[in-house]
Amino acid sequence: MPFSLEKLDIRHCVVAADFFSSDLPHLKDLSMRWCRSSASLSIGHLTSLQRLSLRNLQDLCFLEGLSSLQLSSAQFVHVPNLNMKFISQLRVKNNLHVSSSVMLNHMLSDEGFTVQKFLGLEGCNESFTFEESADCSSIKCLLFFDCEISSLPGNLKCFSCLRTVKIIKCHNISFLPDLPSSLNRIEMCGSELLRDSCQAPDGDSWPKIEHIRFKGFN
């Protein structure tokens, strides 16, 4: 691959264990989707990497060097066999997307983990709650996208600085839990049951959002 490569998007390929062994000092954006791969990949030497997107990788178990990177954004969506120890002390400056509630709670409970702004839960199939040890105080925007869960986590108040909640294509959610007082924006799209529950003045969830400055329903 070219020494000057800055963006690499790999789809529907077989990725060998030594695929990233070459020197790619300028690589900033790495995406892998719908790939078969070795159980172990090493990316810690990709020191310029800012954006990492891993989606639908069934074989990947070990991601060596991940904790040594300082990423602007990261996505771990349907990577079911990734060993949790390789996401310990993950540092993400802006945006994080995950599909596994187990992985998310593991990240949030790790003392070295940081994500500053945006947290997205995408394609999650199991209802869950955030663990008491989870540190959510820095997160400003929370997204639930295309989730099959029947309810949102009941302890969203642990997001003490949360400003925005977005709920998109979550068809089974029909009510809202108690929300943090810091919230000033809530958006819903393609979540019909929840939208009906939030309608003024008689919706069951309306009293929980009545005070919120901006409310968007589609």
Q: What would you say this structure looks like, in words?
A:
- With 218 residues, the protein is mainly beta.
- Helices cover 9% and strands 31% of the residues.
- The radius of gyration is 19 Å and the shape is elongated.
- InterPro entries: LRR_dom_sf (IPR032675).
- What order do the helices and strands follow? EEEEEEEEEHEEEEEHHE
Q: Report, as a whole number of angstroms, the end-to-end distance.
A: 44 Å
Integer count of domains: 2
From the alpha-carbon coordinates, what is the Rg to the nearest angstrom?
Answer: 19 Å
Count of helices? 3
Instruction: Give the biggest beta sheet.
Output: 11 strands, parallel
Number of strands: 15
Structural class: mainly beta
- Name the beta content range: 25-35%
Overall 3D shape: elongated
Pick out the low-confidence regions: none
Q: Approximately how much helix is present in the residues? A: under 10%
Average residue-wise pLDDT: 91
Write a compact overview of the structure shown.
By secondary structure, the chain is mainly beta. The protein has helices spanning 101-109, 192-197, 206-209, and strands at residues 7-11, 14-15, 29-33, 36-37, 40-42, 51-55, 62-64, 70-77, 91-98, 114-115, 118-122, 141-145, 164-168, 185-189, 214-217.
